């Protein structure tokens, strides 16, 4: 199945990667990257469940690697302050007092807002206090037995929700790490190479390329579940998508919030599809017809939207990046939008002037060389160069460098004539100096 990609869908990015430009042996090249098009960095989407920085925060704050004096200080704070004083409310505060105290404090200490050291720890303390005091049952246990009341019960210390979930549920904010369910993951971008001839790159071409990529699994329709089976709540995390592990050390109880490995944070498990093994995607080859615009060069990148790997669980597909490589022409060299060519003429033609036939990308063309042309002169054949990318009919020039050939050997007749010419010149000079 071939899908036509309209030209407007492709974005050309102009910088040549170093690797490709080093392959280019064109000694005339003046500018390596003069194509004035969008410079696009390739991005590869990651599908981690926690953004890496957040994972780092979550783990570091409980990490036993933190030096002991640090931990001790933190524990003293914890031990000295009960949940009521953490929230700054009295023991008989109403539910709405507790809620408004939490909202005020949590907003000040949320790590997205407050970058001060210890803010995150404070935020967690606040959240923990709120979680207990906002729940009538937990609050009454806490009032009677303190934190010890939760030990060994179903509401162990490890039973606390993710403080960020608690926060976002109250503030209705899109915090990066929200509920773990329905973890859609975007598909990865793909990259492939396309080799063009010199003329194809200059004038543009339509090409069909075969791309091997991950597409939605046809057996399970992308769900990853074996057809006819139903997803059920993950027994490892109870549908939370996260597990909290507590470890008791002489310094106190430490908790780590981790993505549930059994369900990869989705909160659900299912019997995996036989075809794709639960990934929801299978490798398929697809023919994509690509309209390469005129004026591309080695290293240009075409971006074909949504033709990368399919997303997971409804995530957006990645993009396909096509990197152009151009086979050099034996005589015509490219310098951005100009084409460079060297023509050799005899010294006689240089003196008398001549017309030569020059190859161009449009075919052979006549070029008039004026009498008295100097070696190394560059003549401009205007608009015989490369069309400007995405600029309609504008074109660069062909620059013809004139190389004058001096014969290494002369026939007797030629020598006699040149000597005659030399004598003529001498006489002229003598006459001139006598005057
Ligand atoms: Zn499948
Ligand atoms: Zn799970």
From TrEMBL:
- Please list the GO terms describing molecular function: ATP binding; heat shock protein binding; unfolded protein binding; zinc ion binding
List keywords of the entry alphabetically: Chaperone, Chloroplast, Metal-binding, Plastid, Repeat, Transit peptide, Zinc, Zinc-finger
Q: Which GO terms describe its biological process?
A: protein refolding; response to heat
Q: What is its main location?
A: plastid
Subcellular localization, as worded in the UniProt entry: Plastid, Chloroplast
Q: What InterPro entries does this protein map onto?
A: DnaJ, DnaJ_C, DnaJ_domain, DnaJ_domain_CS, HSP40/DnaJ_pept-bd, HSP_DnaJ_Cys-rich_dom, HSP_DnaJ_Cys-rich_dom_sf, J_dom_sf
Q: Decide whether keyword 4Fe-4S is in the record.
A: no
- Which residues belong to any copy of the J domain? 82-146
Supply the PROSITE patterns for this chain: DNAJ_1, DNAJ_2, ZF_CR
Q: Which GO terms describe its cellular component?
A: chloroplast thylakoid membrane
Listed HAMAP family: DnaJ
Q: Which family does it belong to?
A: Belongs to the DnaJ family.
Official protein name in the record: J domain-containing protein
- Species name: Gossypium raimondii (Peruvian cotton)
């Amino acid at each position: 199945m071939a899908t036509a990609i309209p030209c407007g869908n492709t974005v050309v990015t102009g910088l040549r990667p170093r690797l490709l430009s080093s392959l280019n042996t064109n000694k005339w090249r003046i500018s390596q990257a003069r194509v004035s098009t969008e410079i696009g960095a390739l991005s590869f989407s990651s599908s981690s469940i926690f953004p890496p920085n957040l994972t780092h925060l979550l783990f570091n704050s409980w990490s036993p690697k933190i030096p002991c004096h640090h931990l001790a200080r933190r524990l003293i704070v914890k031990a000295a302050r009960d949940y009521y004083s953490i929230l700054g409310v009295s023991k008989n505060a109403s539910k709405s007092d507790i809620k408004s105290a939490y909202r005020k404090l949590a907003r000040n200490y949320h790590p997205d807002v407050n970058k001060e050291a210890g803010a995150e720890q404070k935020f967690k303390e606040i959240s923990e206090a709120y979680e207990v005091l906002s729940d009538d049952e937990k609050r009454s246990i806490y009032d009677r037995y303190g934190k010890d009341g939760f030990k060994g019960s179903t509401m162990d210390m490890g039973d606390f929700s993710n403080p960020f979930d608690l926060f976002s549920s109250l503030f209705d904010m899109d915090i990066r790490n929200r509920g773990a369910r329905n973890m859609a993951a975007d598909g990865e971008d793909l990259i492939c190479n396309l080799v063009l001839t010199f003329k194809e790159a200059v004038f543009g071409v339509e090409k069909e390329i075969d791309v091997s990529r991950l597409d939605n699994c046809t057996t399970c329709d992308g769900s990853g579940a074996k057809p006819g089976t139903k997803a059920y709540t993950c027994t490892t995390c109870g549908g939370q998508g996260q597990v909290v592990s507590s470890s008791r050390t002489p310094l106190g109880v430490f908790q780590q919030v981790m993505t549930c490995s059994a369900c990869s944070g989705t909160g659900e498990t299912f019997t995996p599809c036989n075809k794709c093994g639960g990934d929801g995607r299978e490798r398929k080859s697809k023919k994509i017809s690509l309209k390469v615009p005129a004026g591309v060069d080695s290293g240009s990148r075409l971006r074909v939207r949504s033709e990368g790997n399919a997303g997971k669980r409804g995530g957006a597909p990645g993009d396909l990046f096509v990197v152009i490589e151009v086979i050099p022409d034996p005589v015509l060299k490219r310098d951005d939008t100009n084409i460079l060519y060297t023509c050799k003429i005899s010294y006689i033609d240089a003196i008398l002037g001549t017309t030569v036939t020059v190859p161009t990308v449009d075919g052979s063309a006549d070029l008039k060389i004026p009498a008295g042309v100097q070696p190394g002169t560059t003549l401009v054949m205007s608009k015989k160069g490369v069309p400007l990318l995405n600029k309609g009919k504008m074109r660069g020039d062909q620059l013809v460098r004139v190389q004058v050939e001096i014969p290494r050997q002369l026939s007797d007749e030629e020598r006699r004539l040149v000597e005659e010419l030399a004598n003529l010149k001498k006489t002229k000079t003598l006459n001139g100096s006598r005057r």
